[in-house]
Amino acid sequence: MDLELPELPFPLRTYGPDGHWSYEDGVLAGWAGARQDRFVPPTDEGLDPASDAPRLLGAPEGDFQLIARVTVGFAAGFDAGVLYVHVGERAWAKLCLEYSPDVPTVCTVVTRGHSDDANSFTVEGSSVWLRVSRTGRAFAFHASRDGKEWIFARLFTLGGETATSAALIGFMTQSPVGEGCVVTFDHIEYRDAWPEGLRDGS
């Protein structure tokens, strides 16, 4: 299924399990089913082939920022709404608002063969603003409690410039140990520029 959002200059396509994606009045909504996730444990040999999560992704060009406020209907540990970057089957990254495991937390996962996992800061309530940016071969993750003051979370690469230029970006939902959760994304914004400063709140 393809979906076009007026805020984005590229169409989005669904990947993974059915996320029941819908868009109305500036709000994108998706559903993660029971025990759906994308994570390759560093203590294990690989990704369970049955482990996947609903994704809605498109192909940006050049430098960009993708911004959205995410709201998660938390029901179980590690339920999350995600801004997602995909370069290859074992090269992808997640910026999440996650119940981790019993308090809403901004966390990041970068997968290069296997996944790492790092918590950033906790959040009051069930909403936070997330931002993923790219310049050249570099990606950056930021989050914000108010959509104005941005907190730096991560700077990383997922491969060379050729792979990075073909990256897909977009939205994901997950419920790794629960029975599912609903996630909404609003205040979606796309900018064709890298942030002016990574660590100064801009």
TrEMBL record:
SUPFAM superfamilies: Concanavalin A-like lectins/glucanases. Gene3D superfamilies: 2.60.120.200. Pfam families: DUF1349. It comes from the Bacteria. InterPro entries: ConA-like_dom_sf, DUF1349, UCP022704. This is Regulation of enolase 1.
